[in-house]
Amino acid sequence: MNIPSSNLPRLVIIGGGFAGVALAKKLVKEDFQIVLLDRNNYHTFQPLLYQVSISGLEPDSIAYPLRKIIKKGKNTYFRMAEVNNIDPNNQKVTTSIGDIYYDYLVIATGAKTNFFGNEVIENNAMRMKNLPQALNLRSLILENLEEAVRTEDEQKRKELLTFVIAGAGPTGVELSGGIAELRNHVLPRDFPDMDFSAMEIHLIEGSDRVLPPMSENASKKSTKFLEKLGVNIHLNTLVKDYSQHTVSTNTGLTLQTATFIWAAGVTGAPVDGLQADSFVAKTNRYQVNEINQVAGYNNIFAIGDIALMANETYPKGHPMVAQPAIQQGKHLAKNLKRHLKGKDMLPFEYFDKGTMATIGRNKAVVDLGKLRFAGFFAWFVWMFIHLWFLVGFRNRLVTFFNWSYNYINFDKAARLIVRPFKGSNDVIEKV
Amino acid sequence: MNIPSSNLPRLVIIGGGFAGVALAKKLVKEDFQIVLLDRNNYHTFQPLLYQVSISGLEPDSIAYPLRKIIKKGKNTYFRMAEVNNIDPNNQKVTTSIGDIYYDYLVIATGAKTNFFGNEVIENNAMRMKNLPQALNLRSLILENLEEAVRTEDEQKRKELLTFVIAGAGPTGVELSGGIAELRNHVLPRDFPDMDFSAMEIHLIEGSDRVLPPMSENASKKSTKFLEKLGVNIHLNTLVKDYSQHTVSTNTGLTLQTATFIWAAGVTGAPVDGLQADSFVAKTNRYQVNEINQVAGYNNIFAIGDIALMANETYPKGHPMVAQPAIQQGKHLAKNLKRHLKGKDMLPFEYFDKGTMATIGRNKAVVDLGKLRFAGFFAWFVWMFIHLWFLVGFRNRLVTFFNWSYNYINFDKAARLIVRPFKGSNDVIEKV
């Protein structure tokens, strides 16, 4: 892949998500030759993917060119590549564009949607873990509405106007709230000849409350917000099947729907090649020690969603969200700098900055340690934090402008079917 | 397609481009039942498509939901549909979503790329007449650069870094200037490990000057601008073939390139079904009289690129650009209102507002009647006019912001491969 040889130790980073980018940014000026690999040429700000799906933001606002992120490094190389295999004995990574040797390897491949082995659901449900998937969902929602307004078959229209989301974590809550707001404010103006009282949004959750990772207070408040927006919540309910446009659950509930979104879990996205015991099969994550070293290897590290660092506070590892990934990336950068100077590496400590989710206009919930609040102020904090963490001045300003516009006009401006999803047989969607 | 019957005469408009939209907007509050059909749910601002291809603008900035444009009409219906056939005897249009009867029909289907019967070029060249095509071109340019930086084959790299554009009309000039600016300002920072002196841009034109529809002065100035940017111009040259990554011309020129863009002509995009003599085979446009009536029919009109209205000033019809389309749409609206009141329709007169093209930063040419100017002021006028004509406040502001950002930073921020083009076998691209 045409990387020049150098006297510097070579550090290969697989994945340009939150963890990989945080690491690379801190090391570009250090004495490493850095090779960053990603299947895309951009970093995705995943917490706002749902905004793309509900036509609130343009895809380019939440993506940022990876080359631009690392351009300050003299010995830093980006290569767009799919990684197929790691060969730890020869310190080699095999990719879609050739092999590359490493001195140090960092695996930051993140997570993918978890279907818990249900192939029927995997083949039929929409998912939303990357930009093409989020765009496919946007297209499908809009295409189904176009079909609903023109069909003369009442049963079919009902199906097209029913939206079912499995999983009431932040993604499920934000999506169902967003779709409800489309119905309440945007769509009736767009489709004056359609009766939107027939449109239904169902949110299905296996546990006994929405937003299970958050506080009881956040669950209660977000339930109230969702109900106010008209979302039907089904708790203690597991989706068993989705075929022939019918969702069925373990509680006997059946829902006819043309849009079924699976947001009920994630699992690690590891790379083949490492020894079996470096790896926790149940969650597909690499077992790492307190300095993010993968079990069994000295020069292979894993950070972010793909790393499982079990300790007393987090016996099952850290939550698979942005903050632990960013913090691990930064921490590993510090440790690798120490290592260059012959110093010992320091253990990682996670600083929990809190959790938040937005349900809609003026409606969000925030848990900051013991501080828990909801409503307009929480929503404001949510917006501020997300703008702050977006990469790049341009993306921040465009997003800020779009949100202001949408807020003032009760609108979602990006409702465009640029690539139809139906019948497109899009292979990208399955990744 | 579920359009309610009404006492109002039904006006079916095929196509939501400049002409169809100008017409529909002026008639939404009149005593017609309007049905607007388009294969997309958005209007495309075609003059800025090239900015999407060179990563200067996001696709959503130059597209606008058609439903939003017509939402003020009580008797106005939008349906997303592909139109297959017109049956004038039964006053019926056949579409992908069923048949519809009309009292009045307006054909505003615009133009498509003209390959002059060369199937090899049609199968292999990139084109840029709609948003998915513009996005495909953006992806291909960026994918080729990614491949160029990693290949170790010098010959292959040369091919990947060579960009050939056929046709030096506004599209070809704007594209080649835009790609040259990417090379001069943006790419060297993105790819510090690549030598961009090897990157070549060739613009091939059949006539003896660039921008043949504009003044001699504009041609001279734009030639100077293009040469300053480092574009190789080949005049009096016709592309004969493009296969196995080789462009060959009637002058014996051969160029190895992985990116060949065909911008050498457009032709009408008519609908099947009308009698043969309503139609000028050479240009695929409908023959219309001075009130835009299609030859041989009383209640069928054609406006915009698809209409050929020959008169003394324009013996071959009006230029196939935005202004005649907008003016014909507005004029036909006026005439249809007169018709409702039993008044005679008035002949269309085209008011030539001038022509302009931008080559790059501070570089544009403008012909306004006898007033001809070039350089910074022309570029400023070009920007102002294009912002003015963009549909929607949000699109104007986002575009303005992106342009300002790009100008200040010598940047093009949207360089993202959201949908890879290579190997995607994208059928949309061929439309």
TrEMBL record, chains A, B:
Q: What stretches pass through the bilayer? A: 371-391
Q: Which UniProt keywords apply?
A: FAD, Flavoprotein, Membrane, NAD, Oxidoreductase, Transit peptide, Transmembrane, Transmembrane helix
**EC number, UniProt record:** 1.6.5.9
Q: What one GO molecular function would you report for this record? A: NADH dehydrogenase (quinone) (non-electrogenic) activity
InterPro entries according to UniProt: FAD/NAD-bd_sf, FAD/NAD-binding_dom, NDH-2, NDH2-like_C
Checking Gene3D superfamilies in the record gives: 3.50.50.100
Q: The FAD/NAD(P)-binding domain covers which part of the protein?
A: 10-329
Domain External alternative NADH-ubiquinone oxidoreductase-like C-terminal per the UniProt entry, residue ranges = 353-406
Reaction(s) this enzyme catalyzes, per UniProt: a quinone + NADH + H(+) = a quinol + NAD(+)
Q: Which family does it belong to?
A: Belongs to the NADH dehydrogenase family.
Protein name (Swiss-Prot/TrEMBL): NADH:ubiquinone reductase (non-electrogenic)
Which species does the entry assign this protein to? Answer: Aquimarina brevivitae
